[in-house]
């Protein structure tokens, strides 16, 4: 034990008890370096990627599974580790008869929630392959493609393309077109929720890998591990973790969100342990079905600003989209016209971030107005949005 640790231990003796010790470990949008109990899926992915250890390129593939099954966490963790291997070719075992060890391809992860154009896609791939910063303006898409073609002409790359079927992004059917202008030294690993027979990706992939929802016991372990890393000692009782896991039905995103909201509530109440009431309140706040908080937070800054105020709008001002627009537009930090605010609200309704629900009224003519309902838990969004600012 070093001197700093000894001093911190003595300081803690005089601190008031704290429930939340590490917010980062509790964030439902954070991915761990080593996903828990996902060995079989990792083996399937490694089986598919096995050719890279011999210096060859694997075929295209599609990883799919329901919301909250951990697809992104698994692929991101695996590609992060493989990226280290690709930077150290001598980590590959080779025989004495091979004069030069095989070159491992580069591993690139692209989140399609952040890529809304061919330009952004080429920029993201190139940025991951080179050490120097890549300009995000003043360069054409054609120039980026030419540089990528030259760069990949002498090397190989496997590109993981996540969230290919999210609403509002680049259509999965256009994914093959994004790679069409790149050399044959590139293969891709698409990640989405749709089954292979429901997407055009099956035409361009050699294999598909299914990721199932978390089993209840495994999800309990995930929740307890996150609580152990982020909360005070024994702050989450096993029976409460089990209750969250039963409610979440194998959806790790919803389970971790419930833990985060419950911990935030308990901390604001001055508790040193999570109580039944904290878990109940957290579960009641999360809509079913809900939308990924990661997807919400990936919205452009202006839409996030509007959404941040929508969360705080008084219920009386949510009776119609028009009333909600007026309330948000009146905020001093909203430098947007009412028309733009309303357009943003409608666009977010079209992509499922919020939902338009028809209001009930007994008087008046014409179609009843519609109000907006959130498809994500407001407390979790508010805390995460504030962290970003």
UniProtKB/TrEMBL annotation:
Domain Orc1-like AAA ATPase residues, every copy: 38-175
Q: Which Pfam families match?
A: AAA_16
Q: Which domain of life is it from?
A: Archaea
Matching InterPro entries: AAA_16, P-loop_NTPase
Which SUPFAM superfamilies did the record assign?
P-loop containing nucleoside triphosphate hydrolases (SSF52540)
Please identify the protein, giving its name as recorded: Cdc6/Cdc18 family protein
């Amino acid at each position: 034990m070093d001197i700093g640790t000894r001093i911190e231990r003595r300081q803690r003796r005089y601190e008031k008890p704290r429930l939340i010790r590490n917010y980062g470990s509790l964030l439902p949008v954070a991915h761990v370096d080593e996903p828990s109990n996902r060995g079989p899926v990792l083996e399937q992915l490694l089986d598919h990627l096995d050719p890279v250890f011999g210096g060859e390129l694997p075929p295209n593939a599609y990883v799919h599974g329901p919301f909250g099954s951990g697809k992104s966490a698994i692929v991101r963790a695996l590609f992060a580790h493989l990226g280290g291997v690709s930077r150290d070719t001598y980590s590959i075992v080779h025989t004495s008869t091979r004069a030069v060890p095989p070159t491992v391809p580069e591993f690139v992860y692209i989140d399609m929630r952040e890529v809304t154009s061919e330009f952004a896609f080429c920029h993201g791939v190139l940025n991951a392959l080179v050490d120097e910063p890549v300009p995000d303006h003043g360069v054409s898409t054609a120039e980026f493609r030419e540089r990528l073609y030259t760069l990949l002409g002498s090397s190989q790359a496997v590109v993981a393309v996540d969230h290919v079927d999210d609403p509002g992004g680049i259509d999965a059917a256009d994914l093959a077109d994004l790679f069409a202008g790149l050399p044959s030294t590139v293969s891709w690993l698409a990640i989405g929720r749709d089954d292979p027979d429901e997407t055009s990706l099956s035409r361009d992939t050699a294999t598909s890998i299914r990721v199932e929802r978390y089993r209840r016991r495994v999800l309990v372990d995930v929740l307890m591990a996150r609580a152990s890393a982020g909360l005070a000692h024994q702050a989450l009782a096993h029976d409460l973790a089990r209750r969250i896991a039963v409610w979440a039905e194998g959806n790790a995103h919803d389970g971790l969100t419930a833990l985060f909201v419950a911990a935030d509530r308990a901390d604001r109440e001055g508790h040193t342990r999570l109580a039944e009431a904290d878990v109940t309140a957290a579960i009641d706040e999360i809509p079913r079905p809900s939308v990924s908080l990661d997807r919400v937070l990936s919205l452009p800054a202006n839409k996030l600003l509007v959404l941040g105020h929508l969360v705080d709008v008084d219920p009386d001002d949510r009776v119609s989209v028009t009333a909600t627009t007026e309330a948000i537009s009146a905020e001093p930090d909203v430098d947007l016209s009412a028309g733009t605010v309303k357009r943003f609200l409608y666009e977010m309704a079209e992509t499922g971030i919020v939902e338009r629900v028809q209001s009930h009224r007994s008087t008046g003519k014409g179609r009843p107005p519609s109000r907006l309902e959130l498809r994500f838990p407001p407390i979790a969004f508010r805390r995460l949005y504030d962290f970003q600012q």
